[in-house]
Amino acid sequence: MTLRDIKKDIQYVIGAFVDDCTLFLNLNPGKNADAIADLIDKAVDLYNELRDKVVAAPKEGTRAYFRGVSQELLEKTDGLYDELSAAVKAGLGK
């Protein structure tokens, strides 16, 4: 995995999450908007955190380092999707 690949992965995965959040907000105006906005803020913070980690990558062992960052991206985004699911259920009253 290269620096370019991991940056693209971070941008794509976080971007897809933010798109899902905004889609819910557009389809359900006013329903749990504050919780969804908080999730978008968390996603932006995660994006910035992971990009900073990638930029500060060590010169040696970058493949293993990038694999770790990629794993962290997937785990944390999965957690955000769990929170989004709960917010959607709460917003729809189910």
Q: What is the number of beta strands?
A: 0
The profile of the biggest β sheet is: none
**In which range does the helix fraction lie?**
over 70%
Strand content: under 5%
Spans of at least 5 consecutive residues whose pLDDT stays below 50 are none
Name the helix and strand elements from N-terminus to C-terminus, one letter apiece.
Answer: HHH
Averaged pLDDT: 92
Radius of gyration: 15 Å
Taken together, the total number of domains comes to 1
Shape: elongated
How far do the termini sit from each other?
42 Å
Give the helix/strand class: mainly alpha
Tally the helices: 3
Question: Can you put this structure into words, describing what you see?
Answer:
By secondary structure, the chain is mainly α. It has one domain (3-92). It contains three helices and no strands. The chain has helices spanning 3-27, 33-55, 62-92. The mean pLDDT is 92.
Characteristic terms for this protein:
94 residues; mainly alpha; elongated
Blueprint (SSEs and pairs):
Elements: H1 3-27, H2 33-55, H3 62-92
Helix pairs in contact: 1-2, 1-3, 2-3
In short:
The chain is 84% helix and 0% strand. The protein has 94 residues and is mostly helical.
